[in-house]
Amino acid sequence: METIYGILDRLLPFAWMQHTFMKHAFLAVLLMTPLLGMLGTVIVQKKMAFFSDALGHSAIMGIAIGVVFGVANVNAVMIVFAVLFALLLNKIEQKRAESADTIISVFSSCSIAAGLMLLSGSGNFNKYSGLLVGDVLSITEIEILYLAGAFVLALVFWVLGFNRLLAAGMHRVLAKSRGISVKLVESLFVVLVAVIVTISIKCIGVLLINALLIIPVASAKNIAVNMREYHFFSILFSLFSGMSGLIVSYYINAATGPMIVVIASVIYFVTFAYSRVE
Amino acid sequence: MRQLQKPCGLHCIKVHHFGVTLDHQVILQDVNLHIHCGKLTVIVGKNGAGKSTLIRAMLGEIPHEGKIAYQYQKKGFVQKKLKIGYVPQGLNIDKHTPVSVYDFMAAYLSRVPVFLRKSKRVYEEVRQCLSLLHAEDCIDKQLCNLSGGQLQRVLISLALTQEPQLLLLDEPAAGIDKNGMDLFYSTIDTLKKSYDLAIIMISHDLEYVKKYADEVILLNKKVLKRGTAGEVFESREFREQFGMAAVPAGR
Questions:
Q1: Confidence at residue B108, expressed as pLDDT on a 0 to 100 scale
Q2: A17-207: which CATH topology?
Q3: Do A227 and B162 touch (CB under 8 A)?
Q4: Predicted ipTM of the assembly
């Protein structure tokens, strides 16, 4: 880590970079935003925004289970819970039930309510309120390592599986008829989303995580005409919102997560206007 | 029955006793088909008659009874796995979806991640596939901006890359205008004459069915009537299913 700090000091000799917590936040944003921008491309294309939102909410329940059972590593409990929750929701989606969105909503509300209930039981819910909007400035080294691990995992999956994921998203029966194991690739994808959403919750919060998955991608969709542009702009907008949000929030003393989302939203409206003018 | 210029007719596909039951409801029962290469077989029937289910069952997408056999009659050789090219009605895309025709085709044909780079080799391969159906101009267009006819040609050229012995088309011409329709059916006609494959199509366009189909199958849970378009359209079974109004004029 010290080597990385040294490099950061040399590359970015700014006042805001002097603090260790800002170095941590910088690294976290550097890893997290491109990742969310990349995953978001498929979430938007497959119309899974509601699904990923529900997944974010499930984190509260994951934390509650960890706290109630006194598990030392709450992160691990959150990840396991989110993965199981994601697979369950995916199963409901794949059944193609008429009311899949209603059922997902029930599960999502239930898990957030039960989680809040359990956490407030001990009378110290304030301790967890940071989870709602996140706190990127209190990220620890170990959490950065988690993010780095997820980053590598996601890249590998994307390079090996993206074509099949796209093919399955276009038409399930067509993809199956060409020998693509649609269920497997979709399940792997939701597990990946679950892991990354859970790890990112600490930085950006339950309420805003979905914004970062959706808004930069929606902006990219406004102007891109093929998959390469779509990924490029999505990752660019996501990274730019993250970095500028971090720096601006430092100077104007605002919460970082919301700042990032506000900047991402501004980009969305600009690209929206651009696409309409064009 | 239209005469083929180069009749082969030695390959045939037999569907034996196909049955599908979903949620305790019988959708298809004892469906038997016998289809030769170089022939266009059209399945007609009311909504909910099980046409799409039959196609999905033939693809192995849903559990079913019965089996499909592919035979080369000269040698009595039965190939185990029939290669089926599937052409869906449309795709799950809405406006502004940033997927180009190249992205779409390459996602199915290649392992080179389409989000990373455009591979020259794959691009050339895709262009050649598309040129079989004179759709190579579409390669860099967005899928969502194609006309119904263009999209169908892209989908068919994708299906042909598998070198199928059987082409399954699920209501391919829905939402195509009159000119597109003429072009579409004449393309299908060329396909069956120039490739060694059998074609099964679901269609509601009875005018075109009458003109182009070699065999028509009237389906409602089971095969009610089969024969040439004329025979089927004039049958009692057809009138019972559709009423008089549906019979194409000139009969």
A1: 93
A2: ABC transporter involved in vitamin B12 uptake, BtuC (1.10.3470)
A3: no
A4: 0.87
Q: Do A224 and B98 touch (CB under 8 A)?
A: yes
Judge residue B170's burial from the number of C-beta atoms within 10 Å of its C-beta, 0-12 exposed, 13-18 middle, 19 or more buried. buried
Over residues A1-26, mean pLDDT = 84
Asked whether the beta carbons of residue B103 and residue A41 sit closer than 8 angstroms, the reply is: no
Closest CA to B197 of B5, B6, B11: B11
- Domain range list for chain A: 17-207
How many domains does chain B fold into?
Answer: 2
Query: What is the C-alpha separation between A272 and B25, in angstroms, rounded?
Result: 48
pTM for this prediction? 0.88
Q: Are residues B170 and B155 in the same domain?
A: no
List, for residues A58-90, the tens digit of each pLDDT value. 888 888 888 888 887 888 888 899 999 999 888
pLDDT digits (tens, 9 = 90+) for A243-270: 999 999 999 998 888 999 999 999 999 9
Listed residues B134, B162, B190: the one ending a domain: B162
Render pLDDT for A188-244 as a digit per residue (tens, 0 to 9): 999 999 999 999 988 888 888 999 999 999 999 999 999 999 999 999 999 999 999
- Extract the tokens encoding B46: 């009311």
Give the pair of three-digit tokens for residue A273.
Answer: 């206007």
Subunit contact B107:A166, Cβ cutoff 8 A: yes
Q: Which residue of A has its CA nearest to B53?
A: A173
Question: Which residues in A lie closer than 8 A to residue B115 (C-beta atoms)?
Answer: 41, 158, 162, 227-228, 230-231
**CB neighbour list of residue B146: distance below 8 Å, 6 or more residues apart:** B101, B138, B154
Low-confidence residues of chain B, pLDDT below 50?
Answer: 1-5, 7, 250-251
Between residues 4 and 43 of chain A, which touch chain B (CB distance below 8 Å)?
41
The reply to whether B199 and B248 lie within a common domain is: yes
C-alpha to C-alpha distance for B181 and B176, rounded to whole angstroms: 6
Question: Domain range for residue B131?
Answer: 91-162
> Does A40 score more than 90 pLDDT?
yes
Which of A164, A177, A221 comes nearest B86 by C-beta? Answer: A177
Q: What is the C-alpha separation between B74 and A90, in angstroms, rounded? A: 49
